[in-house]
Design brief:
Blueprint: E1 3-12, E2 15-26, E3 31-35, H1 40-43, H2 45-55, E4 64-70, H3 82-92, E5 105-107, E6 110-111, E7 117-118, H4 123-133, E8 136-140, H5 144-147, E9 155-158, H6 161-168, H7 200-212, E10 216-219, H8 226-231, H9 242-254, E11 268-269, H10 277-281, E12 282-283, E13 288-289, H11 291-294, E14 299-302, H12 310-314, H13 317-322, E15 324-328, E16 333-337, E17 341-346, H14 365-372, H15 377-381, E18 385-388, H16 394-399, H17 406-424, H18 433-439, H19 444-457, H20 461-477, H21 485-493, H22 496-502
Length: about 500
């Protein structure tokens, strides 16, 4: 046997494209060539594979070896092809029976020089793709816990090349894969909403945002609790559903951030304001997900929002609306999910004391206008809830009640979200088209009230629909079937800040 064909996978977005690894042993001087658009790390597989085969007690054939990674127009990167290349050479040289790899076996793993199999990123997407194709998967033992999430996929984990060869020859049994610990999905709650004294309107807005998955902006002087409130949003959210948890785990796997003990936790990302557009949205010659995709089904917190570059903030507009990211490069296109919940915080002016009854503002109107102009109108229009967080006096803070705990509100939010899922199959912030008309219907009196408010306050059509979604979330929180006029009035209160930010 001088030719062997094996299957592997290459990441394309959060998917895993099938790659055929063709190994040919021909006559001629001993050479080793890899073709099929390999990058530098793939070309270096020649030395890793040769040393790993020798140090595993196997024979590296002194033949003219050509390895083709098909399809040839798909860029290949990383060390994930070390294992299929090594197995292909061993099959082609007759050291492994052909029958051992004919039954749809896929192989992924990086080889150390001593033959040890090292962990590679993106293994969960590969396992899910192998499961869908009905194939088995040979992989490093260190990746087996993550691959177990692809229920039904037959796994052949091994600690090193020699062990995997013995398994394929039928001389050994696969090692027992450690059982994946049961994740509670508790979101790592250590911060309690009861710790925030006062700021009842801001806390109410935070709870409404948690109910419907709405985006939220806090504006107020420094030290009023904006960051405290944002950090407590994950504690109000229920555990991830199975499908959501798998999507989040697949994205984290690409970055090597997967944690088997907490794979059901909702992600919480808080990038610094110096972040680049590519780091936020994703990119690179081989596109990788950015911060907004890492926050998929979780929370993206942007503190000091106007300090972010305007060009960086503008890339948020499309994913805020569509929940998706499409990255196009010269050689590759990628799609990443981005259904995150944005929570942002900002000061009302450069010095931060505009409207502060305790300290006077030092900014002139021109400085305030320049500061606020860093945020475009279309971006602000996409943020559902926009709430002021005023400065509170020490006397008020000492006398203010702490309110209910995060655990109490989390149960209420979970009930409301389950009701939404059963009623419409999505959260309120995602309602579109006919579903929005059907589930956010209001009576004639409420329609007239909303129409007058929209005309007087100059709401756009997008804002009009967002008000209906917010009112639907308020009604769900109060366990009311129909949207009432008081729900619309409360929703409008959460848009007053948008008008003040549009003017100086």
């Amino acid at each position: 046997m001088a030719l062997a064909l094996l299957r592997s996978r290459a990441p394309v977005g959060i998917q895993a494209a099938e790659v055929m690894v063709e190994c040919d042993l021909g006559p001629g001087l001993p050479t080793f060539a890899i073709v099929g658009l390999p990058e530098a790390a793939v070309k270096e597989s020649r030395d890793r594979v040769r040393a790993a085969i020798h140090n595993s007690g196997l024979e590296f054939p002194a033949r003219r070896i050509v390895v083709n990674l098909a399809p040839a127009d798909l860029p290949k990167e990383g060390g994930r092809f070390d294992l299929p290349i090594a197995l292909g050479i061993l099959v082609a040289s007759g050291q492994i029976p052909l029958i051992a790899v004919e039954e749809g076996l896929e192989c992924i793993g990086e080889l150390a020089l001593d033959g040890t199999l090292r962990k590679v990123p993106g293994i969960l997407a590969c396992a899910l793709a192998a499961q869908a194709a009905g194939h088995a998967l040979a992989l490093p033992l260190s990746c087996a816990g993550e691959a177990q999430l692809a229920a039904g996929c037959r796994l052949y984990p091994a600690a090193n090349l020699a062990q995997l060869v013995a398994i394929l020859r039928g001389e050994a049994r696969p090692p027992v894969t450690p059982t994946l610990p049961e994740s509670t999905g508790d979101n790592g709650i250590t911060l309690d909403l009861a710790d925030v004294r006062g700021q009842e309107q801001a806390k109410r807005a935070l709870i409404v945002a948690a109910v419907g998955g709405h985006h939220l902006l806090f504006s107020g002087p420094p030290g009023t609790g904006k960051s405290m409130l944002a950090a407590r949003l994950p504690g109000l959210l229920p555990p991830l559903r199975d499908a959501e948890a798998l999507e989040v785990a697949a994205i984290q796997s690409l970055h090597g951030l997967f944690d088997p003990q907490h794979w059901r936790r909702r992600p919480y990302r808080a990038p610094h304001h110096s972040v680049s557009a590519a780091a936020l949205v994703g990119g690179g010659s081989q596109p990788r997900p950015g911060e907004i995709s890492l926050a998929h089904h979780g929370v993206l917190f942007l503190d000091e929002l106007p300090e972010f570059s305007r060009s960086v903030l503008e890339v948020l507009r499309e994913p805020l609306e569509t929940g998706e990211i499409h990255i196009a490069r010269a050689r590759q296109r990628a799609h990443f999910p981005a259904q995150f919940q944005l929570v942002a915080a900002m000061n009302p002016c450069p010095c931060g004391n505009l409207g502060n009854p305790i300290q006077a503002c030092r900014c002139n109107p021109g400085q305030i206008a320049q500061y606020r102009n860093r945020l475009s109108g279309p971006l602000l229009d996409r943020i559902d809830l926009q709430v002021e967080v005023p400065a509170l006096s020490p006397d008020y803070l000492q006398s203010a009640s702490s309110g209910a705990s995060s655990a109490f509100w989390r149960a209420r939010v979970h009930t409301a979200r389950e009701q939404q899922w059963q009623r419409q199959g999505c959260y309120n912030a995602q309602l579109q088209g006919k579903a929005l008309d059907r589930h956010c219907a209001v009576d004639q009196q409420s329609q007239q009230f909303l129409r007058v408010a929209a005309e007087r306050l100059g709401f756009s059509a997008r804002t009009y629909h967002r008000l209906l979604r917010i009112a639907r979330s308020i009604a769900d929180l109060e366990e009311v079937e129909s949207i009432r006029q008081e729900h619309l009035a409360e929703a409008i209160q959460y848009r007053r800040l948008a008008n003040s930010l549009a003017t100086v």
